[in-house]
Each structure stands twice: as C-alpha cells, then as structure tokens.
Amino acid sequence: MHSTDLVSSFAEIAREKDIDRDTLQLIVEDVIRAMIRKRYGSDDSFDIILNPDHGDVQIIHVREVVGNYDLEDPVTQIELNDAVKIDEDFEVEDEVAEDVSISEFGRRAVLTARHTFRQRIRDIEKENIFVEYSDLVGELVVGEIYQVRRREVLVVHNRVELVLPHEEQIYKDRYRKGDMLRAVVKEVRRDAGSNPQVIISRSDPTLMERLFELEVPEIDEGIVETKRILREPGDRAKVAVVSHDERIDPVGACVGLKGNRIHAVVRELSNENIDVLQWSDDPYTLIKRALSPASPLSVSINEDLDPPRAKVVVRADEVSQAIGRGGINIRLASRLAGYEIDIYREIPADEEDVDIDEFADVFDEDTLRRLRDIGCDSAKAVLELSIEELIRRSGLDTAMAVEVVQVIKAEFDEEELEEEELLD
To answer: Are 275 and 312 in contact (CB under 8 A)?
Structure first.
C-alpha cells in the first residue's frame, strides 16, 4: 500500500466523523509513530511530514554517520560504507535522511494502523459528545424519536443518540417513531469503554422553566423571574414568579392575553394543569397563594416542629379544592412553601361536630396525636380526607386509617339515626 492510499482512507474517515484538519494531522502522526515504534523500538530518529491536501505522508529516517565497525545503534546510526552508497560525499558525523515507504511496514502493520486510527476517532467522538452535552445540561433540545422501547425512548439530536428513560417521561405522553420531541438534557453519564449516555427529561421542572422562557419574553429578558417550580408531571404544577419591574404583573405576563402563553406550555406538557402565582418572601402570604384555587381564611405557622408546619383554615366548601384530587394540591403547596400544611375546615357556629379527643375510648393516644398533628382536630376534618391522603399525611397504616374513618362515619350515622327516632 502507498502512503497516499493510507492517508486518503484516514481523511475519508475523518470527514465522515467531522474531525478538523489539525486534529487529523495529530492523529495520523501518532498512528504512524506507533507503527515506527513497533518496528524499530523508538521513533526518535524519524520525522513525519503530512500533506493532507495531496493525501500524502512522508516518513524520513535520520541517522548519524559513524565509522566502519563503530555501529552501536542501527536505528540512530549508519556506517560510513553504507552511507556513501547513498551519496559518496557523506562523511563521519554527517546526517543521512532516507525516505521510508509505508509498504516496508507490511500489510499487518497497516491494518493495525487503520484500526488504531478508527479507535482514536471514536475516542474523540466520545469526548466531544461528553463535553458538548455536559454544557447543555438544563437546556432545551429538540430531537426526532427513532425507537420506542418498553422502558425508554431513543431520540436523535444532531446525529447523537439521546435517552429518555421511563422515569423521566410524562405518563400521559404517547411516543411514536418519527415524531419530534422537546426535552431538557438532565445529565451525561460516562461509562468506561462505552459511548457517553445523554439522559433527557420531560418530567423535570427545568423543562417547564425553559418552555416559559420561550413563550414569555419578560422571563427571557429577565424582567420576570421564576423563583420556584414544582411539578407532578402530567397532572399539576405550581410556578412562583416575581417581577423586577413594578409596572409588570408577573402572573399576567406568564398567562398572556386570553391565556395564550400558558396554554402553549400546557399543550406541550400533555395538558398539565399549571397554577402561576406571585412569589412572596412572607411565608403566610406564600402559603395562601400556593393553595390556589382555594382561598384560605387564616394561616398559623409552627416553626418549632420538624418539618415546620402550617395550620390553614378554609371554608368548608373549599376543603376539597385546597387538598386537591389525591392530595396533589396540598402536596405541591407544601413543597413550594417549605411547610407541611394541615387543612382545617371552618366550622360554622351552628354546625354539629365532634372533637377528635371524644374518641379517646376507641383510639390510643398515638393515633389521636397523629390526627391532631395533621389538622384533624374534629371528626368531620378527618372525613374530609381520602383514605390515601390520611395514610400519607398521618403515617397511620392502612388498617388503622380505615378503622378511624369507619368509626367516625358510624358516629355520625348513629347521631342521624337518633335524630330521626326523636322526630318520629
């Protein structure tokens, strides 16, 4: 094989992989020097001249002329008798420069060089992907879905494979090959010997932040700032915003005229309900706003507990709104405000209810304490919660939570029965 053939094949591979000229030259020289070291044991006496424009490489072997029978190292020295065969004017201590043909290294060495070159290109590709996408962590990318698997979706972005794991998906999404998909780069994992794995996410709050930046110019320009975003992907989200210009309403800017801005974000996120509220450094105000669409009547905070808790009283007809379906509203509000929130129902003066301590003969003190700690200081307050929410917030096991609800329901059923008997 001629040197032009070898260099041309290297250049072709480099073009396919978008490797720049300077990098190509460095790699080719490293590969050829590896060939030289394998054959001669050292590459110190060799110069390599690469001309990518002509697809040619010149290997020059430089040796010092020594007296006959004074040869100590045939790699770095040449005897005078052999030197004058090249040029009769050579003398001792002169330098002899000879061209070495690629073909002299043999077919196996050339094949090894090609393999080494490809491996070096792959290593550069891996490093470039790692560096490029590490810089894109938290940024929005748009790619094409090319494979849908049971536990992940594979997406192509700039000829790089991105992975959308099951846990980073929105459960309402339906993925089809060929569809375009928006996501944020969440992390780049580098495992020894394999390509970097670029993980993208549709469930991360950062995606919502980037979408608002696209739809709301005031956010992109820094006039409106998103202070905090909490999501239960596909179901509900709460976005707390603040304006750095008193003339700009941050909530109105995010919602847009007739809701056009927020609707664009909602559609992108599979109709996830988004509550936009104005941030406040005052925890009482923040908690009230975070519980939207409910309108709390009062908030009291206990900072001594771990985590700190907030007691919130709402009108009876707004309890379900404050808690939300499956407890989603109160969970997001608690995370947003940084307090475990307990909802108390406003009890009209003329309404019959039973203090939770009246059940001391049925439940032990630990159960009663757990109920009081989550704001259930009356029987009807307990009945406002679903079994699932009661278990989650109180820490009661399923059997005890079911028993509590059954006993309290029975109490009210018995009272109603007694009233009916009296009427009869």
So the answer is: no
The helix/strand/coil state of 335 is helix
CA atoms within a 13 Å half-sphere pointing along the CA-CB vector of 172: 14
Q: What's the half-sphere exposure (Cβ side, CA atoms, 13 Å) at 110? A: 16
Q: Which of 231, 236, 243, 202 is nearest to 335 (CA)?
A: 231
Tens of pLDDT along 316-367? 888 888 988 888 999 999 999 999 998 887 766 556 778 888 888 888 889 9
- Helical ranges in 135-222 per DSSP H: 205-215, 217-220
Give the pLDDT of residue 421: 46
State the distance between the two ends of the chain, measured CA to CA, in whole angstroms. Answer: 112
SS3 170: coil
Structure tokens at 402: 């079911």
Q: Which has more pLDDT, 89 or 420?
A: 89
Please return the burial class of 255, using the count of CB atoms within 10 Å of its CB with bins 0-12, 13-18 and 19+.
middle
d(CA 127, CA 131): 6
Q: Among 108-117, 173-182, 208-217, whose mean pLDDT is lowest?
A: 108-117
Confidence category of residue 247, pLDDT binned at 50, 70, 90: very high
Which value, in Å, is the radius of gyration of the alpha carbons in the chain?
A: 37
Q: Hey, what long-range contacts does 252-261 have (CB within 8 A, 24 or more apart)? A: 253/216, 253/218, 253/219, 253/223, 253/224, 254/212, 254/216, 254/219, 254/224, 256/215, 256/216, 261/215, 261/216
Which residue reads 């459960």 in tokens? 171
Instruction: Please list, in sequence order, all residues whose beta carbon lies within 8 angstroms of the beta carbon of residue 109, skipping any fewer than 6 positions away.
Output: 35, 38, 39
DSSP H or E stretch at residue 59: strand 56-66
Question: Exposure of 69 by Cβ count < 10 A (0-12 exposed, 13-18 middle, 19+ buried)?
Answer: exposed
Tell me the HSE value of 47 on the side-chain side, using a 13 A CA sphere: 8
Q: What gap in Å lies between CA 232 and CA 185, rounded to an integer?
A: 19
Taking a C-beta distance cutoff of 8 angstroms, is the pair 219, 254 a contact?
A: yes
Enumerate the β-bridge partners of residue 51: 56
Non-local (6+) Cβ contacts of 118 within 8 A are 13
- For every residue of 372-417, DSSP letters joined together read HHTT--BHHHHHTS-HHHHHHHH---HHHHHHHHHHHHHHHHHHHH
| pLDDT for 320 | 83
| Rounded Cα distance, 5 and 11, in Å | 10
